[in-house]
Amino acid sequence: MSELTDSTLVRLCAVHCHPAADEGAYDSLKRLAGRPGDAEMARFKAELRHALDFPEEAPSLYRAVRYSDGSTQRFLRRLWRDLYPDEPVPSRSAR
Question: From CA 32, how far away is CA 67, in angstroms rounded?
Answer without folding.
Answer: 20
